[in-house]
Amino acid sequence: RKEVEQDPGPFNVPEGATVAFNCTYSNSASQSFFWYRQDCRKEPKLLMSVYSSGNEDGRFTAQLNRASQYISLLIRDSKLSDSATYLCVVNTRYGGATNKLIFGTGTLLAVQP
Amino acid sequence: NAGVMQNPRHLVRRRGQEARLRCSPMKGHSHVYWYRQLPEEGLKFMVYLQKENIIDESGMPKERFSAEFPKEGPSILRIQQVVRGDSAAYFCASSPGTGSSGANVLTFGAGSRLTVL
Residue A98: exposed, middle, or buried by beta-carbon count in 10 A (0-12, 13-18, 19+)? Predict the structure, then answer.
């Protein structure tokens, strides 16, 4: 089983739509959670951290369910510029100071005009 | 702040040659990470380094691959005797030291794309 699993998509949605991505992780000791965004042939960039209480940043809302080991990202009022691959990322510390991010394979979003 | 700088951005090698990829972390960052992204796949952790120390190399293939982060200069990912399967994008990321604010947040460089002919 992969450590971080995502639906690869693609999700094809019209402008203005609301779209939700889900992600599950296998290691219950995971401590930190993030969503990154990666544009085609570019580097990943941090979109937002995910907190247990849920958090919102403009049109983006992230939720974490530790009991179910499940993370979600909701995008409201989709824009053309939201088209990208969205990466679910989990940080699990193993013993000492290792700060290793585990990436899902990403969910591709294509927003259509 | 120039961010994480990687070079070369594109590198072409023939099978059996050596590839050297360089990464200069963001100013003030002392931790460097290397990730590999194969075509149509996710990013895979390779190695985590601090200055002059390899902290975690659990994702690094046992043969042909090595990494260093010397006291002076950039971090280097070295691939000896490259094979076609090494063709990928290699991303470097940096972060402040653990215990610092934002220690969990990685800033990525633009990547080095290796093509092995």
Answer: middle
